[in-house]
Amino acid sequence: MKIITPGTFNFEKLKKIIIVLLILILVLPFLGRLNPLYTVEFGTVGVVSRFGRIERLASPGLNFKMPIIEKIYFYNTQKIIYETAEQPQTSQFYNKESSGFNLNSAVQKTASDSADFPVDTTTKDGQQVSIRFTLRYRLDPDKVLWLAQNIGTQDQIATRIVQAESRSITRNVAREFPASELYTGDVFKYQLSVQERLISGFEKNGVILDEFLVRQIKFSDGYIAAVEQKQIEQEKVKTEEFKAQQEEFIKQQKIIRAEGEAKAQDILRQTIDPLVLQKMAIEKWNGILPTYLGGGSEVPFINIR
Asked: Can you give the residue ranges of the Band domain (predicted)?
């Protein structure tokens, strides 16, 4: 058995091994860049640039590039969710690796679902509101080259188009509606108005809006208290009006009943002739003949058998 001692250990051999490892560490990333093949995943497209100039679009699947000279930028063409929330950090769409609005994902640097802060604005009559909404959008695959040339990367599209347009239009359209309409449930009209403008604004920038949904319009506590008090007063007025209507109805019923009874008596008096009265008197007679008819003279009745 050979025992290695400091005097017999081959330091030169160890030195060569370390040098080789260092060279591999430095060269391997460079060798990766020399690979002419790359894959575009489904739901994405690749934009190929050569020396900073946009050259062509790469479809999903295995593709070829010129090593070192060409660079690939990936764009997500699937549906993406952008929403506003009271605390974006608690949303399932918030990117925890960034401290704010960021659409980077781990897969090919494409955009992912994201969350942002609510839109604060005022209504037509000056009431402060905070709007929370959700929208779903996607990039038009036929316009990705135009987007890359005129807007930029996926993240730049998300911030310059989706975030900027949706927040601006949501804010401005709210100023066209009085607070009462938004508070009492006319939200669908507001939502539709925002959606129509977003569709137009997105379309001219190569973005397709699939859905826009207003989740909540939050009013100030003072406005809510005022509305509730107004509703209470309105209910009181309605209650008093209902009571007055009931009393008037009862009064009219009594009048109608009295008029009906009086009319019935008049009709009865007009329709009953003397013979009918005599018949009614006979029917009520108890069989006892009167002895006197008045005037002090006795008038005998003849008993007819």
From this structure: 35-231
